[in-house]
Structure formats: C-alpha cells, structure tokens
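Record format v2
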Amino acid sequence: MSRARTIVSLVLPPLATVLIVILAWEGAVSFFSVPGYLLPPPSRVAAALWSDRVDLLWSTARTAGATAAGFAIAATLGVTIGSTLSFSLLLERGIYPLTLLFQMVPLVAIAPLLVIWLGNGPNTVIAASAVVAIFPVIANTVGGLRSTDPLLEELFAISGATRWQRWTRLGLPSAVPSIVTGLRIAAGLATIGAIVGEFVAGFGGDVAPLGIVITASLREFRTEKVFAAVALASLVGFALFGVVSALSTLLLRRYDASP
Amino acid sequence: MFRVATEASGVGVGVSVRDARKQFGAVEVLAGIHLDVEPGSFVALIGPSGCGKTTLLRAIGGVDALTSGELVLRAPSGKPLQSSEAEIAFCFQEPRLLPWRTVQHNVELPLELAGVSAAERGDRASDAISRMRLSEAADRTPAQLSGGMRMRAAMARALVTKPRLLLLDEPFGALDEVTRYELDEELLTLQKSEGFTAILVTHSLPEAVFLADRVVVFSPRPARLILSETIELPSHDDSVRTSDAFNRHVRRVSDALHQAIREAMPTGNGGATT
C-alpha cells in the first residue's frame, strides 16, 4: 500500500510535467502559427510515428541491437581492462591516466576513422558505441579495485591467497558499487555512440537505423519524422538504462558494503 | 599449505625469539627482544601504546620481517618448522569479515583459499561456528550481527584451520566489558581443549592475567622486555577475577609497566634512563 503510494508520488509529478509541456508546445505552435518544418506540433509527430510505425519499429530494433552490443562489449572489455591495469602498478601508472585523457577525445572525430577501418555498416556502429561507453567502465573498475579495504587485503595476503583469488573473492565484490555506477553512465553513452556511428556509417542493409532515419528525414524537411526518430532513440537509451539499473539494484543488494 | 592436526595434545607450536630488532627508517621499534613461548602455552604481551608489541606479533606470524634477530618455530618434539608448516592463524582487533558473505561463507574463506573441497569446508566451518556458539547466525551477513557476534565469527574463521599457533592482536579491545569477559572465557576453554599455542597483545591488564600462563611486559619504544610474570591462579572461571592471587598479579604487572613508563619520560630527576 505505502509502496504503491511511493511509486505513484515518484512517477506522477514528472509525468504531469511532460503532459503540460506537450500541451503548451501544441498550443504555442498553433497560436504563433509556427511552420511545421521548423517545429511540428506533437500531434504531427505522433501522426508520423503512427503512419511509419512498421519501418520505425524495425529501425528502432536495429539501433537497439547495436546499442546493446556496444554496451555489452564496453562492459566486458572495460571490466577486463580495468582489472588488468590494477594488477600491476606499472601498467596502472602508465596507462590509466591515458584512458582518462582518451575520454576527452570527441568521438565524432574518431567515427570517420572507424569507417576507414571497419567499413560502412553495423560493425562500425557497434564499435562507435563501445568506444564511447568503455571509458567510464574502465575508470570505475580501477577506482573500485583501488578502494578495496586494506585490512581485508592484508587478511587475504596472510592467508596466502593467489592473485586470482584476491581478484575474484575480494577485489571484484568490493568494486561492485563503483563498477555499477560506471555501467549506468555507459548505458547512456552507448546510445549516443550508436547514433553518432549511424550518422557516419549506418548505410547499407534493408532497414535504416534511427541515425539514418534522422539524417534522411532532415534532408526531406520532414521535421516531424526527425522528432519521432529522436524520441525513439531516447526510448532505446531509457530502456537500456532501465535494464542496467535493475541489474545494478540486484547486485548492490548483495555487494554494497555500507550497512 | 594445509595439514590437519590430529590430536589435541602436542598440537601447539613453540616460539623462540632471539635478539629481535626492528627498525622503521630511523625509528627503532624493537631493541633486542628475547622471548620463549612454550608449546601449548598462552602468553600475553603488555606494553604502552606504540611500543612494538604488534610489530613483534606480526614478525612471529611471518607478516613482516625483522630487521635482525632470530625467530624459530618448533614442533613439541623440538623439530624446527617453516612458518608455512606451523599453521598460524591471526585474530585482529577488527573482525575483518567480508560484508557480502554470510558467517558460514566467511568462516569457510581460509579453507577455500587453501583449496579444500566445498563439502569438507562446509562441514568444518559449521563445526567451528558451533564451537563459537554462533550456529543460529550462520546464514546472516556481518551487518546483521552485533559486535560480539562479529568477533565470534572472526574467531571461528581463525579456528577453522585448526591452527597450532593463534596470534591475537587485541581481539576484544572494541567490545563492551560483559561481552569481552564472555569471549575471554570461551577463548581460554578452547585453547586448553585444543592445545594450540596462543600469543595475545592486549592493553587490558586483567585480561592478560586472566588468559595467560605468562604475562610479558614491554618498555616504551624501543621495546625491551622488562618483566616476565608467570601467572598461577586457583581456577579459571569468572570468579577468579576477584581473588587475591589475581589482584596480586595485576598489581605486579601494573607496577612494572608504570615504572617503565616513568623511566622513559625525558623529564624527571636526572633525565631519561634508557
């Protein structure tokens, strides 16, 4: 009962805000007679969503697939690289600061290079998604492993634990809260990476992914379809974030050390 | 290395320390300590804060190396042992439990790290947990335990490997007095029944006198051994804490400790006498 009430009190206010914004938008567009190619009213966006629903559904599926693949690669590789770095002080000192620097490189600048290396198509899109998403995972893995309780480290050392045992039984479980934070950030970035990847390399295949739908509709001045595609791309991001958050909650219930 | 000790008698490892010195940079911590611990005995180390008791304990446990000096661990037969054969267990002031593991799985940890099979370590951990009277809490995590119960879990984890030498670094220092007395008694009962050697660092004189066969008093840093008091008590239940013999021992240890602290003070008649 009280739980249901909490959910209602959490969900209702932002929902009301969205509704008010949509109504105000609709009203303002018709009141000021804004041309549709500049800012279509929400009703026209909805109509575009509905009339192209089959194509858009396939486009969304393609983008979602690439985003999920990019995220999965970033998560696996990020935790592996972060763990490898923290195995050796030399590696950590030599490489970790560079991974932080790498985060500052704008991906849009790398994306054309990925096209040169991987060609047009899903490989480049997945790679772009993984490249943007991986750095917070690496950084948070290293950070989490660094923050392992030194008293527990000593306990493991005294008990003659091997490196592998220390990593699996102490390091990783201790780093879970930090890694989970990194994965949440990565979920959002993976979506951005996939869309940017599609801008430069999404051609080919029977179905155009959302990134291509956006650029193509833009050229045809079908602004309402651009809006529809952007909305769907956001939905992909929300969905991935939701799945990752749900998994995080399960992991944190077990591994969060704070009592 | 892991080996099962077969019988209660003759389990304990003897320790002899000769001219142990330890230096941290320019700071001399141990200034030539001689200490003999008989197999199966219980020795308490007492001294002012920061005098080097813990340093000595860690050196005996093979955690830190001495700067110089000799450290020999012996089987009751007199045969010297490598520290890997001596089956040493530690009990620290903090319980050092893994917060995400239940008591059962925390206690299994040392066996798990030593490669003992899942079935065997489950049985042995359950046994150690029941000896520490913690069976009802076996499936709880540390956050769900009281301070005393956490310490019991840590003791069970130390005992699960059937140690021949148990090193205790102020294990009950953070507990309330009632819990502390209770755990003192249980520790003593276990030590007598299982026959391991125990070396305890503590700040509590009554605890040292209650638990130990011998109380060793250190001077302020750099630590030298200034008193080795053999404890003889009429019994080992809680009532002995108010006996005359008990109080006499506490007084003698206390006097030696205070005199050493006074002598080490830089101000006073004639300055320091080191």
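Residues 244-264 of chain B form the longest helix (21 residues).
DSSP finds seven helices and ten strands in chain B.
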